[in-house]
Amino acid sequence: MLKAQVHGLPMFTNRSDVENITSQKPLLQVVIDTEEEFDWSKGPDRSKVSVKHLQQLHLIQDIFEQYGLKPCYVVDYPVATDRTNNQLLVDAFRHDKCEIGAHLHPWVNPPHNEPLSISNMYPGNLPYELQKQKLQALTYKITETFGCRPVIYKAGRYGFGPNTQQILEELAYQIDLSVCPAFDHSYDGGPDYHNFGVNPFLFGKNLLEIPLTAAYVGIAGSYSHHLFSFAKQYEKFRLPGVFARSGVVDRLVLSPEGFTTAEHVKITQFLLKRNVRIFTWSFHSSSIVVGNTSYVQSQKQLTEFLDRFKRFFDFFFDTLGGAATSPIQFKSLMEKQK
């Protein structure tokens, strides 16, 4: 039996912040966790590998093309192997309308040598050799299906671990998207990112980290995490909402899943004032079909979900005068500015 490594702060060695990363224009990239349909409230199940929702990929891809966005689909093993349902995604990539990265869900990715557990759903908790074997298998399948070796990685459940950096370097990955600022997943064995900011940084042997756009917003400053954690203990009394409405602290993510357009604007304006210039719009592919996630349980919710894309993109590109980017495009921009 393998024993998972339960850890807190992920290991990022030789870390350095990226300076002078962009022009004055804010940049927006889109990252989609492109994965199988499964019940998030339950433990890992290796039999849940359906990706039929990808037949509806046009619902979001059409929006991205309308706004000149080149989304990055980080795909896991069930997506990479299901030739019946992933054809729209393959076609989009072959026509240069998206980027493709790797997204490791260990429980549905061979080799299946680890016991099923919540902790082992974080790939960074797996021993070095097993984690590497799984990412090698995924890398091979993505290369076979899409005709291009991926250089972008996002750990399933944001599970970057002590061995992940070395494995990414050994497998020639260049960009990581695993950091989830303001969130602490250590309660069930995951990494603790609550001290991370949203700005990109270089680490290891020239790996680029582009964190998720998530942050504590409000006047609490360095006390944000402690105050937010305190408020969550009294959620039944709606204390988090009281803190948010009063401007003390709110934890927001630039995502159409569970966050409103007003909150998207709020976090963007808050971070812009703090000189953040790259933003990531992120969500799960399975949300594009009713019933797959808690965020989209009716046709009305699906319509509202997709409308949030357009409302925020209108704000970002028209009101703010922002520009579209992608992980690979952003890395190229950085290299030109050196």
Automatic annotation (TrEMBL):
One GO process term, biological-process aspect:
carbohydrate metabolic process
Q: Supply the name of the protein.
A: WalW protein
- Entries under Gene3D superfamilies matching the protein: Glycoside hydrolase/deacetylase
